[in-house]
Design brief:
Layout (H helix, E strand, L loop, with lengths): L3 E9 L3 E4 H7 L4 H8 L3 E4 L6 H10 L4 H6 E7 L10 H8 L7 E5 L5 H15 L4 E10 L12 E11 L4 E3 L4 E4 L5 E2 L8 E2 L1 H23 L8 E4 L4 H11 L5 H14 L3 H4 L6 H12 L8 E8 L3 E9 L11 H8 L1 E2 L2 H8 L9 E2 L9 E7 L2 E6 L1
Parallel strand pairs: 2-15, 4-5, 4-6, 12-13
Antiparallel strand pairs: 1-7, 1-8, 2-3, 6-7, 8-14, 9-14, 10-11, 13-14, 16-17, 17-18
Family: Belongs to the thiolase-like superfamily. HMG-CoA synthase family.
GO molecular function, one term: hydroxymethylglutaryl-CoA synthase activity
Pfam families: HMG_CoA_synt_C, HMG_CoA_synt_N
């Protein structure tokens, strides 16, 4: 069977952020609680001129060639921050990105997990349709509300992945183990704009799912921790992934434990500065690992743990390819971080409450948003997306 996997990967987050030390002080908390206890240093902030559609378009546009845009025949849009209960976000992407009209467009949802399901569907589709290319995007805005316990784990961004035969970055193995359970650890009713979460319970469920799937994976495949170079975790906050990794570290030698911890640090460099992005979180972690590890090489096996509250989890492996660096957008995150603008806490709080909502016509000032694709306002209850 021809190998299938991620040929290209790209990321986008808005140009605004808050500093977690300043947020901690504004909330009368010790900065160490956020910086060490949660494992976050900065957090992306979404202006009214960005939403999940524009972020997804901005991420994908940076990696797609003209040939890609003609070859893509499926767009899978994963989000739990959708803008319409009927129309798929993928349909907007088809137009904004200039993709051909002979394209399937679909949106899917299962908390933070849907991006992984979309990726696996893309893998299987390409395997059955030689020559096809599938665009998978995971785009989200994590919102818990001002002055809430979850505020420190907010964030936003989009990861775009191009799935093809003979990929340059990683091949996706067919060793997936998955599990679901009806659990109320996190949810957002259709009438709510912010998520509801039982934080400590959700953290426990996350770790329980990981340990259960890890044991099942080992039993089914016969592999052990010694077969893995590193792991990428869903990171609603980066300390969560570290706790999960520590649960299985005793299975490794002291030398491998140190190596796995070093790879984990590489995998959370970007997440620490972006925050939570729900469906895209685990793939930002993968991108961070690929970009920041100094020891990854062709043939290395990476373990990937995806988790979505409510709850669904999946563990699988991916194999690093010889030209994996060529599938990354060179200097992308470094440029983003260098150009970002820090917001004061009052300015951040004001923007938090200015997101586009309601049915009244509204024109947004797009002049201050440097992104290519922006949300210009609402006319006749239709979002106005433009490139500028």
């Amino acid at each position: 069977m021809v190998p299938v996997g991620i040929d290209k990967i790209s990321f986008f987050a808005p140009h605004l952020y808050t500093d977690m030390t300043e947020l901690a002080r504004a909330r009368n908390e010790e900065p160490g609680k956020y910086l060490v206890g949660i494992g976050q240093t900065e957090q992306a902030v979404v202006p009214p001129t960005q939403d999940v559609v524009t972020m997804a378009a901005n991420a994908a546009d940076q990696m797609l060639t003209a040939a890609d845009r003609q070859a893509i025949d499926t767009i899978i849009f994963a989000t739990e921050s959708g803008i319409d209960n009927s129309k798929s976000g993928a349909v907007y992407l088809q137009r904004l990105l200039g993709l051909n009209e002979w394209t399937r467009t679909i949106e899917m949802k299962q908390a933070c997990y849907a991006g992984t399901y979309g990726l696996m569907q893309a893998r299987d589709y390409v395997a059955l349709h030689p020559g096809s290319k599938v665009l998978v995007v995971a785009s989200d805005i994590a919102r818990y509300g001002l002055h809430t316990p979850g505020e420190v784990t907010q964030g936003a961004g989009a990861v775009a992945m191009l799935v093809t035969e003979n990929p340059r970055i990683v091949t996706l193995e067919r060793d997936n183990q998955f599990k679901s359970a009806d659990i109320m650890d996190f949810w957002r009713p259709v009438y709510a704009t912010e998520a509801l979460v039982d934080g400590h319970f959700s953290a426990d469920v996350y770790r329980d799912f990981f340990k259960t799937l890890w044991e099942r994976y080992k039993a089914v495949t016969g592999r052990t921790i010694h077969d893995f170079k590193g792991f990428a975790f869903h990171l609603p906050y980066t300390k969560q992934g570290l706790k999960a990794l520590r649960d299985i570290l005793p299975e490794a030698s002291e030398t491998q434990q140190a190596a796995l911890l070093a790879e984990f640090e590489a995998s959370r460099v970007y997440n620490k500065r972006i925050g939570n992005l729900y469906t895209g979180s685990v793939y930002l972690s993968l991108l961070s690992l690929l970009s920041n590890s100094t020891t990854l090489q062709a043939g290395d096996r990476l373990g990937i743990f995806s988790y979505g509250s409510g709850a669904e989890g999946e563990f699988y492996s991916a194999i690093v390819q010889p030209d994996f660096k060529q599938g990354l957008v060179s200097g992308q995150l470094e440029t983003l971080f260098a150009k970002r603008q820090q917001l004061s806490i009052p300015a951040y709080e004001q923007l938090f409450n200015e997101q586009l909502s309601g049915a009244e016509d509204r024109v947004l000032d797009i002049s201050q948003d440097p992104a290519k694709f922006v949300l210009a306002g609402l006319q006749r209850q239709q979002r106005q997306y433009v490139a500028h």
